[in-house]
């Protein structure tokens, strides 16, 4: 009687462990799919892949402009902000080009180097842009990214999804997939050992 209870408990434990492993594998595959349709296209679409050194030539704050956040955005999402324009000397080619914060900045407003997030207090937005402009004037030389193919003549300060960020995004689903497979293998080994012991 006791042996039957132990066998039943062992089978229940193996079933739960097997379900856990399969669930981890399924979740990791869903995460792979989500990363593949969201992050990977932005990474492959970016042409600013080569890092170089940029030297600030001028950083000016122009008159206020309207922020078109995205296509089809509501009127309440559009707000005015000072337009910061940063021009740099590209060390790789010696050209005078305009600097943008990220790839998204160029798409949102190609006239400005920095597009702030919407804030209720316009004074905070103005103070932040003035601080960014003073930092550019203070730190004249810094790393930036340019397009080696020449399709884009401008440069960006940082990439939205650098290679390290892409690897980090794939790290967690890979760990979950490995853990799920390991649990399934251990359960199968345990079942094989149990069957072998019973047969002997």
From TrEMBL:
Source organism superkingdom: Eukaryota
Topology within the bilayer: Multi-pass membrane protein
InterPro entries: K_chnl_Ca-activ_BK_bsu
PROSITE patterns, alphabetized: PROKAR_LIPOPROTEIN (PS51257)
One matching Pfam family: CaKB
Main location (coarse class): membrane
Cellular localization per UniProt: Membrane
Transmembrane segments: 20-43, 166-187
Annotated GO biological process: detection of calcium ion
UniProt-recorded name of the protein: KCMB1 protein
Lineage: Eukaryota, Metazoa, Chordata, Craniata, Vertebrata
